[in-house]
Amino acid sequence: MLKLAKYLGDFGWEPVVQTARNPYWPRWDAELLAELPRGIRVHRTPTFEFERFEERLARPFRRRSDGGSAQSGSERAGPQRALRALRNAIHRYVFVPDAQIAWLPGAFLHGLLIARRERVDALFTSSPPNSVHLLGRLMAAALGRPWVADFRDPWTDGVRRRKAYVGNAGREALESAAERMVLRRADRILVSAEPLRARFLAKYDFLSPERVVVLPNGFDPDDFAGCETGGRELEAGRFHVTASGTMESMFDFGPFLRAVAELVAEDADLRADLRINLVGTTAARYGPETERLGLADRVRFYGWVSKSQNVRYLQQSDALLMHLIPQRSGTAEKLPARAFECLYLRKPLLFLSVPGATTEFLAQSGLVTSVAPDDVAGIKRALRQQYARRGAPAGGDPAFIARFDRRRLTERLAAILDELTRTPALMTARPAREEARPSP
Predict the structure, then answer these.
(1) How many CA atoms lie within 13 A of 359 on its CB side?
(2) Where do you find CATH 3.40.50.2000 in the chain?
(3) Tens of pLDDT, residues 164-207
(4) Can you list the pairs that 361-366 forms with residues at least 24 positions away whose Cβ atoms lie under 8 Å?
(5) ω into residue 97 within 30 of 0, thus cis?
(6) Rounded Cα gap, residues 421 and 309, in angstroms
(7) What is the CB neighbour count within 10 angstroms for residue 67?
(8) What phi and psi, each to the nearest 5 degrees, are found at residue 431?
(9) Which of 9, 291, 293, 340 is surrounded by the most beta carbons within 10 Å?
(10) Strands of the sheet with 368-371, listed across from one edge
């Protein structure tokens, strides 16, 4: 959304942003504000953020566990378990489709005032959170403006969402109905990858192919413009393999660590040179295993860093590392922006995932070696190959990679908005009412 707001003005569209005044998020990167166009109007609507309330409730227990109280572990465990059970129940049965639903009532009323004051021509909502699409549905009905609903991730078919529906048929029914309503009423549906488009078209027979458009994530060359200035984050003279982003909780990183341990035990050169940098990840989960394998001096956990520092780590690396949850049914339905940032740098990329649409797509770049996450021998072989090609000129297919420039992608969105607002005859007709159709 930041990149769309940055570039839409280049194509005749002035973005007017409505967002939350007091959102809760554990990390903030104030540097990104500099990317907003001069004079952009950002309207902030207050909300109730349950996550902030949770964090305040949990704080006293964390202090006690850190030694701030003589309370015994068993005495602490009872209230902590009760709080955790209450939190899970509220998220599971009350906040449907997500905790940000609390923003919707105030955002709808404020949104109507904003839209009329700013005389907006079109509406655009992007998920997650999925509740913003419910806001878009209400706004489109009230204002009679064209509406584009953008899905960066799957909704009801997402991996975590399917887990949340186990034993919770009521939530599944509500969210399925909400997804169906959004897809039926939006004038255009954007998705981040072709497999999600195919899934929507197969799942909902009322969708025509021209209404569902792939607009992938991408990279912004401006993010890398200052990488060569300033000092180095990574020491020179070593072979650096860097992963960017939070370590996925449903992903098992253990086989990769075992592969690295075997590799440095077998190869003296790699034992001296290899450094694995996990940027955005803490040692909380894998720190003990790293110590046990004797990798504490070569596998480093950097935790959260700013965007500008993150891209410097990538720029200074010899090879890059990425992973996705190894679930065949959901491959390539979401391709994170970090994948395209890796492609932009045109460095060798080791991709840990199962075979499928994602691996086939990334293979087109000419940069990616895909290995199953539990294939220790394959991981070792790929790292050896990357080390052997150390210092080689940048590779890959420049024409393929250039397709994912953020400015070029924003131009495609502007063309969709032009079509919806300036040529009404081309707008796809939607059913005037909900037909009684059986659910697919």
Answers:
(1) 18
(2) 2-47+96-218+407-426, 229-400
(3) 888 889 999 999 999 999 999 999 999 999 989 999 999 999 99
(4) 361/193, 361/194, 361/332, 361/335, 364/397, 364/400, 365/396, 365/397, 365/400, 365/401, 366/395, 366/396, 366/397, 366/400
(5) yes
(6) 40
(7) 7
(8) -60, 140
(9) 340
(10) 299-303, 274-279, 239-244, 319-323, 349-352, 368-371
DSSP E strand stretches across 305-440: 319-323, 349-352, 368-371
| 146, 123 Cβ separation under 8 angstroms | yes
* 147, 140 contact by CB (below 8 A): yes
| 391-435 pLDDT, tens digit each | 888 889 999 999 999 999 999 999 999 999 985 433 443 333 333
**CATH architecture assigned to 2-47+96-218+407-426:** 3-Layer(aba) Sandwich (3.40)
Give the model confidence (pLDDT) of 297-320 as tens digits.
999 999 999 999 999 999 999 999
Q: How far is CA 396 from CA 34, 53, 344, 357, in A?
A: 31, 47, 9, 19
Measured between alpha carbons, how far is residue 181 from residues 63, 94, 160, 207, 420 in Å? 45, 20, 21, 12, 20
The answer, as to whether pTM is greater than 0.90, is no
CA distance 241 to 260: 11
Distance CA 324, CA 354 (A): 8
Q: Which two tokens stand for residue 74?
A: 């068993």
Antiparallel, parallel or unpaired: β 274-279 and 299-303: parallel
CATH number of 229-400: 3.40.50.2000
Nearest to 412 by CA among 186, 125, 217, 207: 217
